[in-house]
Amino acid sequence: MKRDILIGLGLLVLLVIISAVSGPYLLRLSTIVLMYIVLALSWNFIGGMAGYPSFATAAFFGLGAYTGAVVQTSGGSMYVAWCAAALMTAVVSGFLGWVLLRLRGHYFAIASFALVEVFRVLTNSMTDITGGGMGLNLPVPQLASVHAQAVFFFYAMLGLAIVTFAVTLAVSHSKLGFGLRCIQQNEPAADILGIKTTLHKVVAFILSASFVAVAGAVYASWVYYIEPPDVFDIMYSIKPIVMVLLGGAGTVFGPIIGAVLYLSLEEIVWRNLLQVNTGALGVLIVLLVLYLPRGFLSLKFKRLRKKVTT
Hints:
Elements: H1 2-21, H2 24-49, H3 57-73, H4 78-100, H5 105-125, H6 127-130, E1 136-137, H7 146-172, H8 175-185, H9 187-192, H10 197-223, E2 225-226, H11 228-231, H12 235-247, H13 254-272, H14 277-291, H15 302-309
Antiparallel strand pairs: 1-2
Helix pairs in contact: 1-7, 2-7, 2-8, 2-10, 2-12, 2-13, 3-4, 3-5, 3-10, 3-12, 4-10, 7-10, 8-10, 12-13, 13-14
């Protein structure tokens, strides 16, 4: 665990250095990759550790974004809005998890996928609160300059990523993490061993939703305007899964590595293959997942291991 903490601190220092020396473009990319890291680490609780293929990430991202936006447009502060997003989503995901997590395999996947459309339709229909299809305009933070705003939201996402990583590290070395891995390996056997499987899964589902909701609320404050097609985009459900698969499902650093790799691929393909960027990116991801089914962390660096052991 000490090694994991040291590696995490090293990554933190690297990100802070990048933010200090980078221009607007790199600062924006750094903020996005931090948001991706939060989404990937969050999905890893339920998908990587417990082995339940959840597609509900976009639903909770949008719920958090709209909860935060409604609080801010009603006169609440930005920080109160972010906390409200976490609280609201924790309650909603706890209830939904208690119901949906009794399903398994593709039945659970389909049910979680449906949540995205259900939340989007509800948001569109609640015009008096959410603005419906017209979206919501959020108040702009009173900061010195545009660059100061960019730096502020970079550090906001960085702080959220640190908290999410710390919770991931704590869970992976706790009884909860052990229980989730038992559920992933053999859930009926875990039941026989006395593990409260439903409770473990619900806690993992709440963790996977709450941090995503705060990321959605921070994102809403960052872009100042949201609408249902934007924050309930199904890609917010698919991208975290791909990131975790690229890095290594169920690991601590796999989602982080996967998020950086995914954003790098996304930017390279977008720059060089503008007309067919989605198809080309999809082919690259499929090839990587096929040839590295356990992610990049599954690669064995034998020489490095020999040096460490000697």
